[in-house]
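Complex 628.
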Amino acid sequence: MSEPIIRLENIEKHFGNVIALNGVSFDVRPGECHCLLGDNGAGKSTFIKTMSGVHRPTRGTITFEGRPMSFASPREAMEAGIATVFQDLAMIPLMSVARNFFMGREPTLGWGPTKRFDVEKANAITMAEMRRMGINLRGPDQAVGTLSGGERQTVAIARAVHFGAKVLILDEPTSALGVRQTANVLATIDKVRSQGVGVVFISHNVRHALAVGDRFTVLNRGKTLGTAKRGEITSEQLQDLMAGGQELAQLESTLGGTV
Amino acid sequence: MTDTSGSPSADERIKAEPLFARLMKRPELGAIAGLVLVTVFFLATASDAMFSLSGILNFLSPAAQLGILAIAAALLMIGGEFDLSIGSMVAFAGMIFGALVVNLGLPLIVAVPLTLLFAAGIGAANGAIVLRTGLPSFIVTLAGLFMLRGLSLVGLKWLTGGSTQLRGIREAVGDDFLAPLFSGDAFGGLFAWLAASGLIESFDNGAAKVPGIPVEILWFIGLALAATWVLLRTPAGNWIFAAGGDANAASNSGVPVRKVKIALFMLTAACAALLAIMQVMDAGSTDARRGFQKEFEAIIAAVIGGCLLTGGYGSAIGAFFGSVIFGMVVIGLTYTDFDQDWFQVFLGGMLLLAVIFNNAIRKRVTGER
Ligand SMILES: Nc1ncnc2c1ncn2[C@@H]1O[C@H](COP(=O)(O)OP(=O)(O)OP(=O)(O)O)[C@@H](O)[C@H]1O
Ligand SMILES: [Mg+2]
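Predicted structure with adenosine-5'-triphosphate bound:
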């Protein structure tokens, strides 16, 4: 198999006296979808934030394309080709959809003092990318604050897909989406993967994970419980691992196997 | 993937948006409405002299002096921060400039950049403290307000041996070739020609009653245009809106939030210094009381211009109109029978109205209920 694009080894992250991550190792290869699973508070978001330059790990090493790397800011990670859909989406409600879409990466026209934000291009790309995700925007100048939760999430996904040249990180991207949009997102993951992008996909939904995942890593209380390849693990086993193996079997019986 | 594409205008869930509703969403709308109101008021109550050419320049001049501060303050507010020290900065930078020109005898080409750089350095320090500590800029720069005012007093006394005024600036500057950029009137030749051809009023001896346009008005207009261009048409403008809208989200999206904010603090301080240079050269002396309470007037003009106190929203052209309203009222009252001191009442009333209005606009834009 090909070399990983990004490899993180023994990552630890402490917030004051809180140990959010306690030695997590993880890698993503080009053209695969690596699912990161785990209970609430397991440390998934914290972990992907060390990958996208938001947090610096307290301990551990990051290797990007074979070289040791330490991203000083999300901007650096982005320039390296890593795009992220954060759980909180990182959108500015008062700004228009197009301005949010290109925030920090505005297309420009001209040079020197006449170098300017190419608003037309930004608007056109935003509308096109949103339509591709199955959302018809009212207009590119609509403020993000007026979008529905799912529409907002779709803008964030479309933005990351547009900019995720090498690694695309999706932190629970489908939590607010409708059936059609979820199918669209999963299909999009499949498409960018076939173009050689490495995808990191965080989800609480085992069916979504199994639908697109090539490998599955389960986090629990800041540690890796293990990594399994597609076909090596059943949906039930995965679900047990995700819940930290606790009492899910019992719960499941009371709920009549609907979880 | 089924694609229900179609032009957005064909969407059956969108009511056609009338021009009026579109205008309602522009941040500067309130300031323009206010300007119309104030103009109508003075057209009705003030003597005709107010809206003659010299009358207009008469109120645009203080408007410009405030506006140079207000436009910078507006950019900083959109970027999510305040600077309460700009009024004191006018006095402090005035002192620095005075000392460079009078005590050190430097020419303007050295003294002006040095003064601007010095002020920008203090702005950068303010910004660094705000970002490093995470404290509200309101409180950090409030400390600056007192420190810079105090330093101006102490410094001037030290420089002059006991006075809080430093004189002799006009003599020291003399006919420096850069002086016309910062003092006096521009387009003198044009105005003389207009007077000679009878297009504008002239005195009996043929000299124009209005010798030219005070340079601060040109700076004011230039700054408003440049700031509007940057805000609406450059990546940096997008970063300013983003940094003020949600610093964390902006930073996670790759906006260099710290750099943006520090640059804005530097710009605001440098604009205060620019105003100081112009005032000092005009008056021929620098005084520790210069710029007193201008920080509040600048912030009020920015708010009248549509800036939200919470950041992320506003306009430079709005601050421009906000400043013009200010100048109009301060000077306009002298053309009426009203007591000058109504100005303060007006100030408070305008601020209150603007804040209520802006709040409503914000809810419209974000669809908040
Ligand atoms: N900035 C922070 N300061 C202190 N503690 C933090 C911080 N960020 C995260 N934590 C803690 O780290 C742990 C892991 O949080 P994280 O957000 O990574 O969980 P998660 O796996 O993404 O959960 P969820 O599924 O609910 O999104 C939590 O216990 C959280 O309280
Ligand atoms: Mg999370």
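Chain B touches chain A through 37 residues (CB under 8 Å).
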